[in-house]
Amino acid sequence: MEKVESSLGMLPIISTSMADQVELRLREYIANKAFKPGDAIPKEIELAEALGVSRNVVREALSRFRMLGIIETKKRRGMILAQPDILSGLERMMQPHMLGADTRKQIFEFRLVLEVGQAALLFARKTEEGIQKLQEVVKRESQVSSIPEKVECEIAFHSTLYEMAGNETIKRFQTMLMPVFEYVVEYETSHQFHAVGSVTHQDLINILKTGTPAEFASGMLKHLEPHFVLLS
């Protein structure tokens, strides 16, 4: 039997996995109609009739969209397309004890790659104030002796770099990945391994002042090299 498009321009569902198919069809509909955040979405009953399924099935698919922040309900407007928070789900799940060893390793490697890859942004957006904050961390680092204090300075230095890069999504990634970073650092500490690269924090500041993005990326890679070695 040939499927015929409804008045809303959607094909009815003929499938045993209704909710999944409705979700897929709604994603296609939103994309094809080029909806933008704030645009109204057809009512639940209209969607059910257009797709040839029950309202319960549509409701289940829509609940998934709400959970992902794709749609929301407004008074006197009904359902509208929202501005989804693409990181919120990841933030809720980023608990080291819930992740396997391989996943923790891969996430930590991803964080290290971010550190190296943000060089161009840092040079485009560096400020004297930001460099001064980095210098203060290095000064504090020179005055501490215990490994926990040095680790705290390590985290503060790299957090300041993320702030200086000025990309809110990268900053949220850094915050989100911090528990995994701390987990790996604790692992290194418990195994009496304190990573010290051939390029120091002060060296990185000097490159930031007078060097190039390529030199900074190379220096950061050397700075983080002990972490890569331990993970390999």
UniProtKB/TrEMBL annotation:
<dbReference type="InterPro" id="IPR011711">
    <property type="entry name" value="GntR_C"/>
</dbReference>
<protein>
    <submittedName>
        <fullName>FadR family transcriptional regulator</fullName>
    </submittedName>
</protein>
<dbReference type="InterPro" id="IPR036390">
    <property type="entry name" value="WH_DNA-bd_sf"/>
</dbReference>
<dbReference type="Pfam" id="PF00392">
    <property type="entry name" value="GntR"/>
</dbReference>
<keyword id="KW-0804">Transcription</keyword>
<keyword id="KW-0238">DNA-binding</keyword>
<dbReference type="GO" id="GO:0003700">
    <property type="term" value="F:DNA-binding transcription factor activity"/>
</dbReference>
<feature type="domain" description="HTH gntR-type">
    <location>
        <begin position="16"/>
        <end position="84"/>
    </location>
</feature>
<dbReference type="InterPro" id="IPR000524">
    <property type="entry name" value="Tscrpt_reg_HTH_GntR"/>
</dbReference>
<keyword id="KW-0805">Transcription regulation</keyword>
<dbReference type="InterPro" id="IPR036388">
    <property type="entry name" value="WH-like_DNA-bd_sf"/>
</dbReference>
<dbReference type="GO" id="GO:0003677">
    <property type="term" value="F:DNA binding"/>
</dbReference>
<dbReference type="Pfam" id="PF07729">
    <property type="entry name" value="FCD"/>
</dbReference>
<dbReference type="InterPro" id="IPR008920">
    <property type="entry name" value="TF_FadR/GntR_C"/>
</dbReference>
